[in-house]
Amino acid sequence: MSTVDRLRAAGCVFAEDEAALLHEAAVSPEHLEELVAQRVSGLPLEHVVGWAEFCGQRITITKGVFVPRHRTELLVDLATDLNPGTVVDMCCGSGAIGAVLRQRLPKASVYAADIDPVAVACARKNLTNVFEGDLFDALPRELQKHIDVVVANVPYVPTDDIRFMPPEARDFEARVALNGGTDGLDVLRRVAEQAAYWLKPGGHLMSETSTRQAHDALAAFTQAGLTATVVTSEDATAIVGILPA
Length: 245
Prior knowledge:
CATH superfamily of the largest domain: Vaccinia Virus protein VP39
CATH topology of the largest domain: Rossmann fold
Radius of gyration: 19 Å
Order of helices and strands: HHHHEEHEHEHEEHHEHEE
Structural class: alpha/beta
Distance between the termini: 64 Å
Number of strands: 9
Number of helices: 10
Shape: globular
Number of domains: 2
CATH architecture of the largest domain: 3-Layer(aba) Sandwich
Helix content: 25-40%
C-alpha cells in the first residue's frame, strides 16, 4: 500500500499533501516508514515532521507543543500594524507569534513567555528572549511599564469542551495550552488584570477568543481598565485593549 493510501485509510483528508511532506522529511526509507507510522497512529503532522507553517514561515514544533493555528495570524497582523518597539508573546507555545514578529519588525525588542517547560524549550529553537513562568511573572522586572504590545494567545477552551476537540489536539497537545477553565476565560482574565502593571500608557493587549466568548472576553478587558474592542476576520476573533494614557 502506498503512503498516500495508508494516510487516506487513516482518515487524513489531505493525504497527497501530507505524503509529500513526509517524503521530504524522511532521510531514509526506514525513517519514512517511522514517520508514516507515527502519522497513521494519529500524531499531528506538525509533530511528525517537526515544523508548522505560520504566516509563511516554518516554525519548529516539538512533540507535545501546541501547533499554531492559521486563525492566530490575525493577532500577528494586528500587532504588526502597531509597529511596536517592545512586544511580548504571552503564552507563547512554540513562539510562533514572536518569531514572525521578530522577522516583520526587525527594530523591535521581542520577548516570549510560557508556563510549560516543554513549550519554552521549543520556543527557544525559534527565537531568543524566551522565559519560563506564570504569565507576567516570567518576564524581567525591567519590562514593567515599558511594553508596547502584549500578544496573548491564551488557552480559551472551556474545560468540559476539551473532550470534543479533534483527537490531534486533545490527545497530543499539552492540556495547559488548551484549558481555559470553566468558561474558557480564566487565563484571559488574569492576563487582562495584570497587563496594566506592564504596558506603557497607551500600550495594547490583544488576545484570541471565540465568537461565543467575545462578549464576556470584552467585559474582562473593560473591567481590567482597558478600552477594548472586538476585531474579527473571516475565521478569527480577537479582543484588542488599550491602556489609557
